[in-house]
Design goal:
The chain is built from 16 helices and 22 strands. The strands form six sheets. Strands 1, 2, 3, 4, 5, 18, 19 and 20 form an eight-stranded mixed beta sheet that branches. Strands 8-17-16-15 form a four-stranded mixed beta sheet, with helices on one face. The chain has a four-stranded antiparallel beta sheet with strand order 11-12-14-13, with helices on one face. A hairpin with a 3-residue loop joins strand 15 and strand 16. The protein is an alpha+beta fold.
């Protein structure tokens, strides 16, 4: 599995394949290094082999994570891509980000380039629908369409999972979005001489700008605890004032929401956190069109302040407002950001927020330290959280068993987890998650602009082998982008792929669509006539 699949040929897409001008082009499948995520590395190589067996000339290429992410999300220089993605609290919030036709630009979120003008109105309208059943019906329609067109498809549904040294760490509680969420993180208890929670990540963080990052998991873990949100959603998926910057909220009508700001709260530097900071944050990200929060700033028209109350006026009715709006935007201090004219490109090395953890130091390439913010209304139970940059997973597990590390913030499923889960001092906590390993196809590429080719590729995905041989049974085979963990929001009737023989099923889809397969390679429509 560790050998590169389809290594012959050029380093990227071309129109020649093996020299037959009738073949579909060679496709590039971008992979992370083996030491970054061994399981995913092996899974991508296995999928690459299957795509070649299907007849799609596929070249698996290995890139450092940062380079890979840029090539896919900003340069669109790829054909196939896979990593872990999640939907968060609300299953519909990221649908528009990932699939709306207007969001296909650089850094826009729809990196597959998928465009369906008929689906666009539903992608947006479901964010505005207050009637839950009507919204569920729209989300079911979206799932059926995406599962038919497959610009993106789940390979495996990923659980939330965290491994930890059980002699030092306890108290983990479940939350749909993960153990990094504020609620479980503030429930964690640590028992060591320094009262430190110590984790590790494979590569440097890159930035500490909450308004200028690409929604990467390693940074979400930091910003979740550095910044507060107007409203947070608890483990029961309900808005919870005990977790929130706002202590009360009300909806005078379907286009207006009012929030009463918590009194007496301060920024980490000691300045008062005021309703004007909230107003500034919302106006600032809208005026500067911050890409990461585009779904949110497109929703509202104006913001006003009356005492401790902030009123947000929305352009159109907003449905699950706390899940798609109030819980999404981190509130930033006006006195730190108002002088920055281009916040999406701002260099932030010492962030100031108001969350349960505050910035301590950042040794780029080595480690990040956050400390307990004593004045938070819901403080953590430990004194410090340190993340060390350690590329080698075997080293990470060795340090976890020794107690030099005591938790793995993003525990990767694979041989290391399987081999170490029964160690006496290793605990593993798992619960159904909101995300998956995705198989994404660049619809801008010749051939991949045809859903028949994309469907054939999805048929060829060796999901069962990946889950059993690479994931050690920790995951579930993926069928639907909105998985069963979302209950009634998940459409159980989506189109099913993965026939018993995925290669044969995929080739039949191709042949039915007018493609031919000669010498093991898919030929363009009509090329054999």
């Amino acid at each position: 599995m560790t050998a590169l699949a389809g290594c012959s040929g050029s380093d990227g897409d071309n129109n020649g394949g093996s020299g037959n001008g009738n073949e579909l082009p060679q496709y590039s499948y971008l992979n992370n290094p083996a030491n970054y995520n061994p399981a995913r590395h092996d899974a991508i190589n296995l999928i690459g082999d299957q795509l070649n067996n299907l007849g799609l000339n596929t070249n698996v290429q290995v890139f450092e994570w940062g380079t890979l992410y840029t090539k896919i999300t900003e340069e669109f220089d790829y054909s196939f891509a896979t990593w872990s993605r999640g939907l968060g609290i609300d299953p519909g919030r990221r649908m528009a980000e990932q699939f709306h036709s207007s969001n296909t630009g650089k850094g826009g979120g729809n990196f597959t380039g998928y465009s369906n003008k008929d689906l666009d109105p539903t992608l947006m309208k479901q964010l505005q629908e207050a009637d839950e059943q009507k919204r569920i019906d729209m989300l079911h329609e979206i799932q059926a369409t995406i599962n038919e067109d497959v610009p993106m498809h789940p390979i495996v549904q990923m659980p939330n999972i965290v491994a930890f040294n059980n002699q030092q760490v306890s108290g983990w509680t479940d939350h749909l979005v993960g153990y990094y969420h504020m609620e479980p993180m503030t429930n964690v208890e640590v028992n060591n001489s320094k009262n430190e929670l110590r984790g590790a990540w494979a590569e440097t963080l890159g930035t500490l700008s909450v308004l200028g990052y690409n929604n990467e998991t390693k940074l979400i873990h930091q910003f979740e605890m550095l910044y507060d949100k107007l409203v947070r959603i608890n483990s029961d998926l309900e808005a919870d004032s005990e977790l929130s910057l706002a202590t009360e909220w009300e909806r005078p009508d379907d286009t207006t929401v009012r929030y009463k700001l918590r009194e007496g709260h301060k920024w980490h530097d000691g300045e008062d956190l005021t309703p004007e900071d909230v107003k500034f944050t919302l106006e600032y990200i809208k005026e500067n069109k911050i890409p990461l929060y585009s779904t949110q700033w497109e929703m509202y028209d104006s913001v006003s302040v009356d005492g401790q109350w902030i009123t947000v006026n929305f352009t159109d009715p907003v449905g699950p407002v706390h899940k798609v709006f109030s819980n999404q935007i981190p509130i930033v201090p006006r006195h730190k950001w108002e002088s920055r004219s281009n916040p999406a490109q701002a260099s932030v090395n010492e962030p100031v927020g108001s969350g349960p953890l505050q910035f301590d130091y950042w040794d780029k390439g080595s480690e990040l330290s956050l400390t307990k913010y004593e004045d938070h209304w819901r403080p953590v139970k430990f004194d410090r959280r340190i993340w060390r940059i350690i590329p080698e997973s075997s080293t990470v597990w060795s340090l976890l068993k020794k107690g030099d590390l005591n938790y793995l913030p993003y525990t990767r499923i694979g041989k290391q987890l399987n081999d170490n889960q029964d160690q006496g001092n290793i605990g593993v906590k798992s619960s159904p998650g909101d995300g998956w390993w995705h198989f994404s196809q660049n619809t801008r590429k010749k051939g991949l602009d045809d859903k028949a080719v994309r469907q054939a590729a999805v048929h060829a995905l060796p999901k069962q082998a990946i889950n059993q041989q690479i994931m050690y049974g920790f995951a579930e085979e993926g069928w639907n982008l909105i998985g069963e963990s979302f209950g009634k929001f998940s459409n159980p009737d989506v189109k099913k792929y993965q026939e018993k023989d995925g290669i044969a099923a995929g080739q039949k889809v191709l042949e039915d669509a007018g493609y031919s397969i000669e010498n093991g390679k898919v030929q363009a429509k009509g090329s054999s006539e």
